[in-house]
Fold each of these.
Amino acid sequence: MHILFNSIFPTMKKILGLGNALTDILLQVNNEDIQHLGLSKGSMNHITFEQCVSIQQQFSSTRKSMIAGGSAANTINAIAAMGGDATFIGKIGPDEIGEFFKADTLRNGTHPYFLRSELLSGCCLVLITPDGERTFCTYLGASADVRPDDLSLGMFQGFDIFHIEGYLVQDHQLIEHACKLAKQAGCKVSMDLAAFNVINENKEFITRLVREYVDIVFANEDESLAYSNLDPEAALDVFARECEIAVVKIGKRGSMIKVGDQKFLVPAICTNCVDSTGAGDYYAAGFLYGLATGRSYQKCGQIATTTAGRVCEVVGAKLSEEAWTEIRGLIALIAEQERC
């Protein structure tokens, strides 16, 4: 399928992603469990290795599953599964979780560029409540051991779009260095703002990063509020003044896209949502895939909504090959509608 889609779009743009190489450990919990741990529901929290072990022990009898994750990795893997030319840069450790992450990435069709660390590989405990909301407890480990001097200009050359996750702001020097290299290589820089509490904790730096380097920005309602202190539509206007392409996702109402003075509303697709893990990552994947294949902004939004809606129907950010076959078919229909 990848060859077929590349032949349809011979001018396919190449996409590079950089992010935390994290293996997601998905746990089904109750709202009371989140409160007991002292966490804000829907937040992202950095934890120590000891806390990671402790939380897993507390839910030892809970059904769990493990998949390769991390925001940018999810996006890049999904782009590859759609038929895109996508490469991911990440760092893993010398352990079973690292090897699992590497093997899973290769299965997705992504071109991997793995850096090696002596630290244990990172993982993310995804606590999923009955309403599908997820709270993240992240042990970064090797994933956060990427250093600015690990990156070189040559790693970015030949790519058209560089996608980063907002979670990388735990290292200001790294994320800014990566953006500078991407710009030097002629890439458009795409950024997903990650989580509202990440923005609150790094407001000044993220604002400067967006204004100076970012061409394409993705945010949900909570993130856009944290960034601008405004409602979603007003926040969209703020982003559009600072970036070439602004996207604000508004839940069941869909998403809004603004490019210059042009504004587009893309309705949501009704799905049986069981878990929103990866929905934002998959939205970014669909949108960037649309851009890479020359689709209009409205069609990019439709592709993004299709992929995001589909991943909400399963637990975790992992779809079957059958699901991807269906998605590729829907993307082909969207593309055909545009040509008519």
Note: The chain has 13 helices and 14 strands.
Amino acid sequence: MACKPSGGSCLLLCLSLLVLIGCREQEQIRSYLAPKEALPELPARRMLAVMVRHGPDVWFFKFEGRKKDVSAHEADFDALLHSVHFPDQEGAPITWTNPPGWRRRMGPPPRFATLYTGPKSKRLEITITRLGPEAADVRQNLDRWRGQLGLGPLSDAEFNQLVNNSEVDGNKATRVDFVGVLKEDAPPPLPRSPQQRPQAEQLPLKFTTPEGWEAQPPMTKQGIPVPVVFRIAAEGGEAEATALPLPGQGGSVSANINRWRRQIGLPPADEEEIARSLRSLQVGDSKAVYVDLIGDQKRILGAILPHGKETWFFTLKGPPDVVGKEKAHFEAFVASVRFPAEGENAHE
């Protein structure tokens, strides 16, 4: 015969159930802070580079790769530099001794040679490049290399500590050792909401956009951010207009013009020839140096405008006919540039 619980027992049982349920509800709403998962460390890149001027030539020795690989072969890079000799002979402007285990491959210009070691899938390279006096701006080269590793420009104090800090075959040289992360190694940026996307008003300059010029997203070229980019589509091809700032003078006028000349297949020009090719464009209260360079397949309009502690570079590049048709638009675009005070709209 089954026993029936008494009234007191039922009451005690109900109270126990309520307490148990209450405890479970408290456990369900209990919160705590979990440690954040550590982000994976990005693979560090290291660049050893030496720049030395000998006579009219500027020589560049560069060893770049994953930090652990470059560090393992740093002694090879130094041994190469110690073996360099400039015999000043026709057809033999430079000699060196390959480090043990390294092989060489000559050219193509402007690369003079490439030294390499290791299997093809994990090959390490030391490059030797020969350029003319137009490439002699030390600071411009150093800041360009830093940009390739995601690093900012050097301060004046940092630059002064580096310039001419070494020697190669009795010639003053600049040796740098930079560590950063290459653009392709960095993780993709998180998607941003429309409110977070850069707006034209955030640019440090304002200008009038010529008719038919299509604004493009900012980009990076050779490690240098390019905040203003336009695409110009026309019969005969497409042209590209850009505007970008560099710290200080961004290199001499002749060095930059010869750099543009190389881009369209023209030989370097001397100071006298460059001076004859220069014009000026009035930009507000300032003047920009302006040049029109025409090659067989490409044409470049370039303007150089100093502003404060930096220099802005404006270019229009593309097929000669397309650039020629847009020349008036380019000149009007540069002439319209203004650098507004903080709080003003930065684009028209």
Note: The chain is about 25% helix and 30% strand.
Amino acid sequence: MTTAELRELNMRIEAETGFLTDLREGMRHRIIGQERLTELLLTGLLSGGHILLEGVPGLAKTLAVKTLSALIDGQFSRIQFTPDLLPADLVGTIVYSQHEEAFRTKKGPVFANFILADEINRAPAKVQSALLEAMEEHQVTIGDETFALPNPFLVLATQNPIDQEGTYALPEAQVDRFMLKAIVDYPAKNDEVAIIRGHLSGEIKEAIRPVVSLSDILHARQVVADIYLDESIAYYIADLVNATRRPAEYGLDELQRYITFGASPRASINMALAARTTAFLHRRGYVVPEDVHEVAYEVMRHRIGLTYEAEADEVSSDTIIASIVNKVKVP
């Protein structure tokens, strides 16, 4: 890409990112002290990638997803996952209409632009399998018919890491479908005081109106697709992901005993997509290594299998990613 083309792209991005201010302000109105969470939600939204939010109860995971959906003029469905949930409760089923004297398809709540899968790890394998097709293929099969899902279609799932009773571990195949896994942490003390005051005054509970249309989101995705990603950055992403599979090749022999399997090629694709979106959020027409670093943990932390030895030594996937990011040569 020439300098003139890059300058033109930067000007185009500057003109197309005005709605980001409205979205960020709308999120701050309700979500206090979770700026990183907001940026990750925007990254998934503009990349077309599903997001898994993990954190203890009460950290505004559900509220953040509902707030983002309320700011966008689209269809929103909240599905509370429970152990007795059936696939038909999610995707729909075929019912017989006595009035019409015929069978007809009754579509489920998954037919929406934004799906909040609350406590996703509480549903059994059959329900997870039904959601898997929707997440990957953006379509649902009911009986003999296949129905396309709305565009855009985004699954934003939450799970509680500390409550194990009545939960099911998500299959690796489904976890891999999530572009990002965000760890939601406690707010700072000053932010918590602001949260208290906001709830007491009623400001946080005020209704939120849409500030962005679905066409704005789809148009922004087209702009993101034009952001320049140099070949050296692509090789850098491939090195980061490959280091999770063969750490010894990168001088990280000590990590070999902690990893059962590394990140899939889907991690490389998603890291490139997320890095381009990060550049867009920074109003830049090209990707730099810092954009990759900004999303590396969220893209790879749920795609690395840990051995029992890693658990015994209290080595997490984030620890492994930190070692890889510090070791692999930056272009």
Note: The longest strand covers residues 92-97.
